[in-house]
Amino acid sequence: MRVLGREIAIRVFSPGAGELPLLVAHDGPEYDERAGLTRHAAAMIERDELPPFRVALLPPGERDEWYSASAAYGRALCQRILPALRTQLEVAGRPVGIGASLGALALLQAQRAWPGSFAGLFLQSGSFFLPRHDRHESRFPRYDRVVRFVRGVIRSGSHADPVPVMMTCGSEEENIHNNRQMVAALRAQGYDATLVEVPEGHDFEGWGEVLEPHLTRLLASLWGSP
């Protein structure tokens, strides 16, 4: 399909036919190849820890532009990509989103701007830049836009759709401070938000290491067990 002037191809892992829950992954091909996302999904289904579900592997496209709290991308995700997936797949309920770094930021922006789009979020090492902690990131072209969005979330008193959010971040990562501030803000707004500090670092291999048990727990809380 064509999104924001670019053709993207979305691969879907599916364990079977019929109406199934859906996990939507930013940086989907990288999550699959380097973090073993669909291997993890297949193992959890095989062990009856989760019901059968599909995984949509969204390619990053213009990553630094799309995933940097872009309102245009958030609209495209919620108003074009998710509905297009529903036309091709039988989806049970609202999807759950998974993303890391800027991909986590983009999911939170979309969920905030388009309430009702997601049932829950799994956010790893989110790039929630704040000048207090992340002035070294100021050369990033969309740094100011990211900071405006993050400040807006933190300063908000409430939100219309406070979904469950599971966050992970390496305890030695530069992002740990802004992740701690973000989880506190989300909790204050009614989100069932949890931050798990882990030994792993800021890379897909590390993010893959903690899919179990943390992603499994989030999905089981939303979808139940077989």
CATH-defined topology: Rossmann fold
At CATH's second level, what is the architecture? 3-Layer(aba) Sandwich
Q: What distance lies between the first and last C-alpha atoms, to the nearest angstrom?
A: 33 Å
Q: How many domains, as an integer?
A: 1
Number of helices: 10
| Rg over C-alpha atoms, rounded to the nearest angstrom | 16 Å
Spans of 5+ residues with little confidence (pLDDT < 50)? none
Note the run of SSEs as H and E: EEEEHHEHHEHEHHEHEHH
Structure, explained:
- Helices cover 45% and strands 16% of the residues.
- It has helices spanning 28-35, 37-46, 63-66, 71-88, 102-113, 131-134, 143-155, 176-188, 204-209, 211-223, and strands spanning 2-3, 6-7, 11-13, 22-25, 54-57, 96-100, 120-124, 165-170, 193-198.
- It has a seven-stranded mixed β-sheet, with helices on both faces.
- It contains ten helices and nine strands.
- The longest helix is centred in the middle third of the chain and has 18 residues, at 71-88.
- It starts with a strand and ends with a helix.
- It has a single domain (2-223), classed as Alpha/Beta hydrolase fold, catalytic domain (Rossmann fold).
- The protein has 226 residues and is of the alpha/beta class.
- A hairpin with a 2-residue loop joins strand 1 (2-3) and strand 2.
Features:
Rossmann fold, 226 residues, two-stranded antiparallel ribbon, alpha/beta, 16% strand
Brief account:
This protein is α/β, with parallel strands linked by helices and 226 residues long. Helix content is 45%, strand content 16%. The protein has helices at 28-35, 37-46, 63-66, 71-88, 102-113, 131-134, 143-155, 176-188, 204-209, 211-223, and strands at 2-3, 6-7, 11-13, 22-25, 54-57, 96-100, 120-124, 165-170, 193-198.
